[in-house]
């Protein structure tokens, strides 16, 4: 369904007159939401007392915002009271007014996917990605990370993409040309948004729509991007500061070149395109019985297809005798070459190292369609909770559990690994400390105590751990997450390595060294199934 949207450029603190105007427009147009892509607030370093009073009035609700409005980070820093409000109210300034975020990927309730990168490029940002949420600067890695969103309906950037005016016949006589960045051109080329919005102070600029070259990825269709840069509100030059349009996120792309469009200015034919991200053919293999494929020179790169994937139940080569339970959206299997031995936990009598795997062949949970993602995450949580309940019952709360996941766009098929751990190690904080210590040794980013849920809000690759401390009936568990980018060579056995060291099972670090005969595997599966029977929610009569 199409939604009406209005997009606005810089406001520079003039919102006391703007919002009443928007209320009138909204009553006639019934906007789904409004997007402010420039500076909502005056620059704090030059703000007047009047500006400061207006900010207070906005926060205390005496300047009403008529409809859901998202505002981007522009070139100005935010006033301090706004940052306080955003921090204490989780991104909300007052009713209907929300911060879009500096580097963000979001989907509105109308199903419209918005990707935004606010601020100006600061080539000096350490590590290439900006750590701070509010200062109006970003690094090249921020743009790279956003490429992981793969598509967008609306892209919002403070600066222009490089070369955007090439191949265009639109007249252009600005006094000053806005800053333009190569990394934003690349981002736009990858996301192929239907609309790309930016701002340009005292003038309005709308380029002819341009099409992206059809490819396998676009199903041979021609995605069209409209680049529109808005003037500031209340500008004396009377240039366009608001742009209203209807958007249907489900509309399909054009089957041929639409008239009035140009080829993409972002990928000039004589310019070498950046190499696609290096993808590993098969990085994480805990079952299936073959060593990671070393890619030969010249071999085609690309993620593994479902037919070759050892996590896809649809693959006929999958070791189905390890599968212990199949749900509607995920399934449970004992690990091939488990870290623990059948006698590591005498109360159990089986290793207890399991994998919870989505039925969908997808690199990350966050990459799944919304409905599928929510249902899959909920069922994986249910499997985890059921196994926790089983541990409590079989071993009278002697064991807690650790569940870990590597969410990485270049892997073929996401999954969780689950392992019981003596509850003492958890209660003394040793499990948490072990993950943190190895990460620190490797000079990787710090773990945050945070629950990223189904991962949809995450724009980067991450590694997460859920630790359950065996308290009965409590689903309360510690959740840790480490976000990382391409500068980190994350190895897929990190979680196993941490636990191997902690449990003094160093010699079992590599799963290839823990091979079992099929007979042994079947015995362990039978032991697990017997203990899990009562807790398996898929086994209802
Ligand atoms: C809101 O803040 C403004 C500016 O400080 C002040 O004049 C006004 O009285 C406040 N209104 C309420 C309801 O607190
Ligand atoms: C209009 O833009 C010019 C150039 O950016 C600026 O000097 C002027 O203050 C703006 N006018 C208003 C009313 O914002
Ligand atoms: Zn798969």
From TrEMBL:
Residues 479-538 form the Cwf19-like protein C-terminal domain. GO terms for molecular function: RNA lariat debranching enzyme activator activity. CDD domains: MPP_CWF19_N (cd07380). Residues 305-427 form the Cwf19-like C-terminal domain. Pfam families: CwfJ_C_1, CwfJ_C_2. Transmembrane segments: none annotated. One of its GO terms (biological process) is mRNA splicing, via spliceosome. Residues 258-300 are annotated as: Disordered. GO terms for cellular component: post-mRNA release spliceosomal complex. Residues 288-299 have a biased composition (Basic residues). This is CwfJ domain-containing protein. It comes from Sporormia fimetaria CBS 119925.
């Amino acid at each position: 369904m199409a939604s009406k949207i209005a997009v606005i450029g810089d406001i520079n603190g003039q919102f006391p007159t703007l919002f009443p105007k928007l209320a009138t427009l909204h009553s006639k147009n019934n906007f789904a939401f409004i997007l402010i892509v420039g500076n909502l607030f005056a620059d704090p370093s030059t703000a007047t007392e009047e500006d400061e009073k207006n900010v207070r009035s906005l926060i205390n609700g005496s300047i009403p915002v008529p409809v859901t409005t998202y505002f981007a980070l522009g070139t100005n820093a935010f006033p301090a009271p706004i940052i306080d409000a955003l921090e204490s109210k989780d991104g909300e300034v007052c009713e209907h007014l929300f911060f879009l975020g500096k580097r963000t990927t979001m989907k509105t309730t109308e199903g419209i996917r918005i990707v935004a990168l606010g601020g100006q490029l600061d080539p000096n940002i350490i590590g290439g990605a900006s750590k701070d949420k509010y200062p109006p600067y970003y690094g090249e890695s921020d743009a790279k990370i956003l490429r992981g969103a793969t598509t967008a309906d609306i892209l919002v950037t403070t600066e222009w993409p490089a070369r955007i005016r090439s191949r265009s016949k639109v007249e252009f006589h600005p006094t000053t040309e806005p800053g333009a960045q190569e990394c934003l051109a690349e981002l736009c080329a990858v996301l192929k948004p239907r609309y790309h919005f930016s701002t340009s102070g005292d003038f309005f600029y709308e380029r002819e729509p341009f099409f992206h070259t059809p490819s396998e990825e676009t199903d041979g269709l021609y995605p069209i991007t409209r680049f529109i840069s808005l003037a500031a509100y209340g500008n004396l030059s009377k240039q366009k500061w608001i742009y209203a349009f209807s958007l249907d996120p489900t509309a399909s792309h054009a089957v041929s070149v639409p008239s009035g469009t140009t080829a993409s200015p972002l990928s000039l034919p004589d310019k070498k395109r950046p190499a696609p991200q290096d993808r590993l053919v098969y990085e994480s293999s805990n079952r299936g019985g073959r060593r990671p494929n070393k890619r030969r020179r010249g071999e085609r790169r690309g993620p593994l297809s479902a037919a070759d994937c050892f996590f896809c139940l649809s693959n006929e080569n999958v070791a189905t005798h390890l599968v212990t339970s199949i749900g509607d959206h995920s399934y449970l299997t004992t690990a091939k070459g488990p870290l623990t031995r059948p006698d590591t936990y005498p109360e159990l009598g089986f290793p207890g190292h399991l994998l919870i795997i989505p039925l969908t062949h997808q690199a990350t949970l966050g990459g799944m369609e919304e409905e599928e993602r929510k249902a899959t995450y909920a069922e994986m949580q249910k499997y985890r909770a059921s196994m926790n309940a089983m541990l409590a019952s079989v071993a009278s709360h002697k064991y807690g559990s650790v569940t870990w996941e590597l969410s990485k766009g270049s892997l073929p098929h996401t999954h969780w690994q689950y392992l019981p751990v003596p509850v003492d190690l958890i209660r003394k904080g040793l499990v948490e400390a072990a993950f943190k210590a190895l990460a620190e040794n490797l000079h990787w980013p710090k773990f945050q105590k945070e629950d990223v849920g189904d991962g949809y809000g995450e724009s980067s690759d991450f590694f997460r751990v859920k630790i359950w401390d065996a308290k009965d009936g409590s689903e309360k568990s510690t959740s840790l997450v480490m976000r990382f980018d391409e500068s980190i060579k994350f190895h897929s056995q990190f979680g196993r390595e941490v636990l191997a060291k902690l449990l003094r099972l160093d010699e079992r670090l590599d799963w290839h060294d823990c091979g079992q005969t099929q007979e042994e595997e079947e015995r362990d599966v039978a032991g697990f199934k017997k203990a899990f029977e009562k807790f398996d929610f898929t086994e209802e009569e």
